[in-house]
């Protein structure tokens, strides 16, 4: 059984690294890292959103998200605004430039992911996602 677990762990790590590198390569032309993309994607889908909620949805710790947000602000990809209901909360949304860039990036991400899953049926992918969720649950 140990050899089987070793092979599963090794194969999982190899695939994860290859997928991450492929995504990183696709994002290079936009001068955005995969980590920055994950934050941009959350902001795009959930804006206006607080930094705390970005961290929760992106499954990253608060200091990491804070650093990424600082970079995205310097790149003029996101805007900050004070919450009208609670002035202690800062809400994030995409800037005009950010919206344009996110759409271009999304096209590349979808193409890249399409290549990852080429030849697999929707049913196979659903089983794969289900298995990954169970493994993730076991790790928590």
UniProtKB/TrEMBL annotation:
Pfam family for this entry, one: MarR_2
All residue ranges annotated as the HTH marR-type domain in the record: 1-137
SMART domains: HTH_MARR (SM00347)
Superkingdom of the source species: Bacteria
Transmembrane segments: none
UniProt-listed PROSITE patterns: HTH_MARR_2
Keywords: DNA-binding, Transcription, Transcription regulation
InterPro entries on file: HTH_MarR-typ, WH-like_DNA-bd_sf, WH_DNA-bd_sf
Protein name in the entry: MarR family transcriptional regulator
One annotated GO molecular function: DNA-binding transcription factor activity
């Amino acid at each position: 059984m140990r050899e089987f677990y070793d092979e599963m762990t090794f194969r999982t790590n190899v695939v994860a690294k290859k997928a991450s590198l492929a995504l990183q390569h696709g994002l290079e032309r936009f001068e955005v890292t995969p980590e920055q993309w994950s934050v941009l994607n959350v902001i795009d889908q959930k804006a206006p959103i607080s930094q705390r909620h970005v961290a929760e949805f992106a499954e990253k710790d608060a200091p990491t998200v804070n650093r990424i947000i600082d970079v995205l602000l310097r790149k003029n990809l996101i805007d900050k605004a004070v919450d009208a209901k609670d002035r202690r909360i800062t809400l994030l949304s995409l800037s005009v430039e950010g919206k344009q860039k996110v759409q271009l990036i999304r096209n590349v991400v979808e193409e890249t992911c399409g290549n990852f899953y080429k030849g697999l049926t929707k049913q196979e992918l659903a089983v794969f996602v289900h298995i990954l969720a169970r493994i993730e649950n076991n790790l928590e």
